[in-house]
Specification:
By secondary structure, the chain is an alpha+beta fold. The chain contains 17 helices and 18 strands.
Length: about 425
C-alpha cells in the first residue's frame, strides 16, 4: 500500500474515494476496527464510505492502495454495495471514540479523545495504536495540553462511555452539506445523535432537520427545551417548519407557535391551515418577490443572496405592493436565465411571463406535478381568490411529497 504507515483517522473523514479509473465513488466517513480477545490492539479491517446515493458501504482495508492528504484510491472498481452494518465485535472509530472521556495513564489526569491513529506493521496489518487526547483543564482561558498516547495509556477507551462532549465529532462533520450531515446523524445511536443535534447552532440544525425523516425530526425537537425548539423553528423555512409542526399534537403546535416571534410564526400558522397534499400545504410563503419597477440588476442581486436555495432563486415573482405574502396583485414571473440576458437597467415589469395560470392553494399534488412538468418550471406561483401571491411551490417540495414517505430512511434507501 502506497501510504504513510501511520494515519490519523479524523483526517480521513470527507476524503474522496476513487476507483482505478479515476472516477469518484464516494467519501470516507469512518474506519472500522475489530476488537480482539487478547491484549492486542483493535485491528482496522476497513473504512466506511458514503456513496452519492446516501448509502454507506464497507471498503476492506485490503482493497485500498493509496491514502494521502487528498484522497483514497481503490485497487478495484468492483464494490460490494450492501449497506454497512457494524458487527457486535466491531467499533466505528470516529463515532464511538471521538470525544470520549479517558484518563491519561499513569498520571490518571482526565482528557478527551480528539483523534485516533491507525498504523500498519510489516505484514500490512493495520491496528489502532495511538490516541490524541486533550487534557482537561479547569482554566476557561486555556486549552489543555494535547498528548499523543500509546493506545494502552488512554484508560477507559473501551469501557462504557460516560457523558461526553461533541466538539471533536462536530469538527469532523462541520463541512458536510445538510443532507449529508442528516445522513450521518441517522447512523449514530439515538442518544449520541441528540447530543450532536443539540450542539449545532440554530441555523445549522434547522437546515439539517429539513433533511431528516419526520420521526427523527420530532425526536430531536422533543430533546430540546421548548425555547430552543422555537428558535430552531424560526430558522427553518416556513414550509419546512409547518411540515414538522404538523407531526406534533395540536397543543404542542400551539405552544411552540406562541413562543416564536409573531412575524416568524404567522406564515407557519397560515400554511398549517391548508389541506395536506395541496399546493397550499407544499408551498413556501417566502419566494423571491419584486415590484415591477425593480431593475434587472436589483433582481440579480436579490437571487444571489446565499441563503436562497437554487429552486427558490430560479425565478422571481412580480407583484404590486405590498411585497410580503399575501402580496398585492400578482403580475407574472421572470426566470433567472432571462435576467442574465437583459441589460442591467431593464425593468423586470417588461420581462414578465404572465400567460401561465398560477396554482390555487387547493390545487391537488398530482395537478401541481403535471403543471410543473408541462411548463418545465422549478417554482410555480400560488395565488388566492383575490389574485394575491400567497407563495410558490418548488420542485424540491414536489419531489419530497411525491416520493414514498420513508424515502429519507437509511434502511429503505439500502434495499435493492
Amino acid at each position: 500500500m502506497t501510504t504513510p504507515t501511520r494515519v490519523y483517522i479524523a483526517r480521513l473523514a470527507g476524503l474522496a474515494v476513487y476507483d482505478p479509473n479515476g472516477d469518484q465513488v464516494g467519501r470516507i466517513r469512518d474506519a472500522v476496527a475489530r476488537l480482539r480477545t487478547t491484549a492486542r490492539n483493535p485491528q482496522v479491517v476497513g473504512l466506511v464510505a458514503e456513496l452519492a446515493m446516501r448509502r454507506r458501504i464497507f471498503l476492506s482495508i485490503n482493497w485500498i492502495t493509496t491514502i494521502d492528504a487528498e484522497s483514497v484510491l481503490l485497487a478495484s472498481g468492483t464494490l460490494n454495495l450492501r449497506r454497512f452494518e457494524k458487527r457486535p465485535n466491531e467499533l466505528l472509530v470516529l463515532e464511538d471514540l471521538l470525544d470520549r472521556r479517558v484518563t491519561i495513564e499513569p498520571s490518571n489526569r482526565p482528557g478527551t479523545v480528539v483523534d485516533v491513529a491507525m498504523e500498519s506493521n510489516r505484514q500490512g496489518e493495520w491496528s489502532l495504536t495511538r490516541v490524541a487526547v486533550r487534557e482537561q483543564t479547569s482554566r476557561l482561558s486555556r486549552r489543555g495540553h494535547l498528548h499523543q498516547l500509546d493506545w494502552e495509556r488512554a484508560g477507559g477507551l473501551l469501557g462504557l462511555p460516560e457523558t461526553r462532549g461533541t466538539a471533536n465529532l462536530l469538527s469532523v462533520l462541520e463541512n458536510m452539506r445538510p443532507a449529508d450531515l442528516a445522513n450521518a446523524l441517522q447512523d449514530l445511536p439515538d442518544a449520541r445523535r441528540n447530543e450532536v443535534a443539540a450542539a449545532l447552532d440554530d441555523a445549522r440544525l434547522a437546515d439539517v432537520l429539513g433533511e431528516l425523516p419526520e420521526h427523527d425530526q420530532v425526536e430531536i425537537l422533543a430533546g430540546l427545551d421548548r425555547e430552543r425548539a422555537a428558535d430552531v423553528l424560526e430558522e427553518m423555512d416556513p414550509d419546512d417548519a409547518a411540515d414538522l409542526l404538523s407531526e406534533l399534537p395540536p397543543p404542542e403546535q400551539d405552544m411552540l407557535l406562541d413562543m416564536m416571534e409573531p412575524d416568524e410564526a404567522d406564515p407557519v400558522r397560515q400554511l398549517l391551515k391548508y389541506q395536506p397534499g395541496t399546493a397550499g400545504s407544499l408551498m413556501t410563503s417566502e419566494p423571491v418577490i419584486m415590484p415591477p419597477d425593480a431593475t434587472v440588476a436589483e433582481a440579480l442581486a436579490r437571487i444571489r443572496e446565499p441563503q436562497l436555495s437554487p429552486a427558490i432563486a430560479a425565478q422571481i415573482f412580480v407583484v404590486r405592493p405590498p411585497m410580503a405574502t399575501p402580496t398585492g396583485r400578482y403580475l407574472g414571473m421572470v426566470h433567472f436565465q432571462r435576467l442574465l440576458r437583459e441589460p442591467p437597467a431593464e425593468l423586470v415589469g417588461s420581462l414578465l411571463i404572465n400567460d401561465i395560470d398560477p396554482l390555487q392553494p387547493t390545487t391537488p399534488l398530482p395537478e401541481v406535478t403535471r403543471r410543473m412538468a408541462t411548463y418545465d418550471l422549478v417554482a410555480f406561483p400560488v395565488i388566492d381568490a383575490a389574485s394575491r401571491l400567497v407563495g410558490a411551490v418548488t420542485v424540491d417540495d414536489v419531489l419530497d411529497h411525491s416520493l414514498p414517505s420513508d424515502w429519507r430512511e437509511r434502511d429503505s434507501a439500502a434495499k435493492p
